[in-house]
Amino acid sequence: MKTELLELDTSDRTFLDLTSQVRGFTRDLGDGLVNVFVPHATAGVAIIETGSGTESDLRDALERLLPVQDIYAHRHGSLGHGRDHVVPAFISASVTVPVIDGQPSLGTWQSIVLVDTNPDNPHRNVRLSFLAA
Amino acid sequence: MKTELLELDTSDRTFLDLTSQVRGFTRDLGDGLVNVFVPHATAGVAIIETGSGTESDLRDALERLLPVQDIYAHRHGSLGHGRDHVVPAFISASVTVPVIDGQPSLGTWQSIVLVDTNPDNPHRNVRLSFLAA
Amino acid sequence: MKTELLELDTSDRTFLDLTSQVRGFTRDLGDGLVNVFVPHATAGVAIIETGSGTESDLRDALERLLPVQDIYAHRHGSLGHGRDHVVPAFISASVTVPVIDGQPSLGTWQSIVLVDTNPDNPHRNVRLSFLAA
What we know:
The structure is a homotrimer.
Chain A: E1 2-9, E2 15-17, H1 19-26, E3 32-37, E4 44-48, H2 54-65, H3 82-90, E5 94-100, E6 103-104, E7 111-115, E8 123-132
Antiparallel strand pairs in A: 1-8, 2-7, 3-5, 3-8, 4-7, 5-6
């Protein structure tokens, strides 16, 4: 299996657009499925539009739905860090995208985005894996 | 890879049951994984029961959790359209289902459903892709 | 395709850690993708940390976001059971994890967890399927 571990820096960033890395990874690979997997318990992968406000809308929605408050049983890390551990139950660590002739078959406005609400760890990995048809 | 792009009309419909199309697509394909992927930034795919009220319960839940109000940074489209862009962060554009002897191994009450909260665009595509074992 | 149907008992348990079963299933299978699929309309699979409070934090979050109240159109089962049918729209029935040399490439703190909020049915299945590279 062709697989690659991206090393990323999320300092001061909740969202990191991985689309160009995924495109580079699948180029020349023909047809198949590409899996994007985050091996961390406080991050997920979302396929959303970027650059038109959706990142901040998603940040606001997460703050409303899973507030950074002292309400979590998980007690490690900074105040409210427990919510970072709940995020991946809703925004999964794994997403799979069809690839045709080396191109992820994304829609015009779709980007593959790492969602990392945890400010305590800026060093992140994402694993890309390709299964050929 | 066997892959097919469905052309769908979601006029006046938030939910569109794709199960029969997926079953038709995988018939005769043997064992493998079928990926259902929506190439739009304002729709997702959910595996839920249909016909017993869950569609309206999910619509109500989305309205409570991501209200159609003037609170979004994304400013295109009709009022509150920004929330349609947040939906796929929670209801992913991609789902993968095991296929055994040409049949998606769904449970008795599971249907594969397009969730499209965006009323502005009734012309939708869904890509079905099959990876054989 | 190597595939296996786990038979599980979720009596009095909302969360069931499946990681060791998945590890046992993929051992000796080399490289590929493992799909974990729940063939039930009232359960999902999440990749989260276990044993540090996140299970109860997720239970609380689900209770806040999808309360067990008499607000659902779905009328079968016990009071508020309609919400169990909404859960899998947000916590998907399907997750796919890359496998390298027989090992699911999970992060240190990640576990693959069945999330079953429905107390009415303790007999549950989970299907594991492996697609080799």
